[in-house]
């Protein structure tokens, strides 16, 4: 129902990059990556000091694509295997139309199948990518979830809590609050948000942390990044340190 008011098409506008497949192969090498319909799989030969291999599943934000974000998640997390998810209408998927239903279906089936026993799996999402990240963590048990600049929902980014926000609930999309409330309490969550975010106000992250913290015993870590906006949280040194600590201890 979200597209009745054009909400869904604004939340998932698409970002086709016809050269995306070539860009990925040129950057990582043909032997290191496997490009599937909905994701790229990257693997390194590095061994992780006797611990189970670290598998990171990452979901990018709008105005991004897999080719432009893979390297950052590999470097920041120290992953030994990375699954970088591409949405319909983004990257090489130029002829498809992005919808919430289609993205959820792919995450619950195709992407969930990439999580296997014998690995530590951390699911990461940025901006609108936090929604499919929570869908995945709600579908398949993982070892931790990282949410960067998360909206509480599409409507919540533009309308403060109150009667109007509640009235628009039926046409809202990408409702992270609903997904967070369903998340297994044993899964730790790290939330990071820029204090000066003008795209998704930091109040969204605070509300999401409050929902996550309702689960008794859950490990919820919240970092407000001073001076950061919507798109520069991951460049912050404190964020990088806190992320590495989360990955190591989860």
Task: Report what the structure shows.
The chain is α/β, with parallel strands linked by helices. The chain has a single domain, classed as Rossmann fold. The chain has helices at 7-11, 20-28, 66-77, 100-111, 130-139, 163-167, 176-182, 202-213, 237-249, and strands at residues 15-16, 33-35, 39-43, 54-59, 81-85, 90-91, 120-126, 144-148, 189-194, 220-225. The chain has an eight-stranded mixed beta sheet, with helices on both faces. Helix 4 (100-111) packs across helix 5. The longest helix has 13 residues, at 237-249. The radius of gyration is 17 Å and the shape is globular. The N and C termini lie far apart (37 Å). 42% of the residues are buried.
Name the shape in a single word: globular
Low-confidence stretches: 1-5
Residues in β-strands, percent: 15-25%
Structural class per helix/strand content? alpha/beta
Main sheet strand line-up? 2-3-5-4-7-8-9-10
Straight-line distance between termini: 37 Å
Give the biggest beta sheet: 8 strands, mixed
- The fold-level CATH name is Rossmann fold
Features:
single chain; 250 residues; alpha/beta; Rossmann fold; eight-stranded mixed sheet; two-stranded parallel ribbon; 9 helices; 10 strands; 19% strand; disordered N terminus
How would you summarize the topology of this molecule?
Blueprint: H1 7-11, E1 15-16, H2 20-28, E2 33-35, E3 39-43, E4 54-59, H3 66-77, E5 81-85, E6 90-91, H4 100-111, E7 120-126, H5 130-139, E8 144-148, H6 163-167, H7 176-182, E9 189-194, H8 202-213, E10 220-225, H9 237-249
Helix pairs in contact: 4-5, 5-7, 7-8
């Amino acid at each position: 129902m979200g597209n009745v008011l054009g909400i869904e098409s604004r939340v998932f506008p698409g970002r086709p990059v016809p050269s995306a497949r070539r860009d990925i192969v040129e950057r990582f090498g043909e032997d290191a990556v496997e490009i599937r319909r909905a994701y790229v799989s990257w693997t390194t030969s590095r061994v992780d000091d006797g611990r189970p291999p670290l598998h990171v599943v990452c979901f990018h934000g709008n105005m991004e694509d897999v080719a432009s974000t893979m390297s950052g998640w590999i470097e920041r997390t120290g992953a030994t295997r990375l699954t970088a998810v591409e949405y319909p209408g983004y990257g090489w998927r130029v002829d498809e139309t992005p919808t919430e239903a289609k993205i959820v279906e792919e995450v619950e089936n195709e992407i969930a199948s990439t999580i296997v026993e014998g690995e530590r799996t951390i699911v990461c999402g940025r901006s609108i990518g936090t929604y499919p990240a929570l869908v995945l963590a709600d579908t398949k048990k993982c070892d931790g979830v990282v949410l960067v600049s998360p909206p509480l929902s599409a409507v919540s980014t533009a309308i403060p809590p109150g009667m109007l926000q509640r009235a628009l609930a039926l046409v809202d999309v990408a409702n992270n609050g609903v997904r967070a409330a369903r998340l297994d309490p044993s899964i730790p969550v790290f939330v990071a948000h820029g204090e000066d975010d003008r795209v998704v106000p930091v109040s969204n992250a605070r509300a999401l942390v409050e929902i996550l913290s309702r689960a008794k015993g859950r490990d919820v870590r919240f970092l407000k990044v001073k001076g950061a906006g919507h798109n520069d949280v991951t460049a912050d040194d404190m964020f990088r340190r806190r992320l590495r600590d989360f990955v190591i201890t989860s």
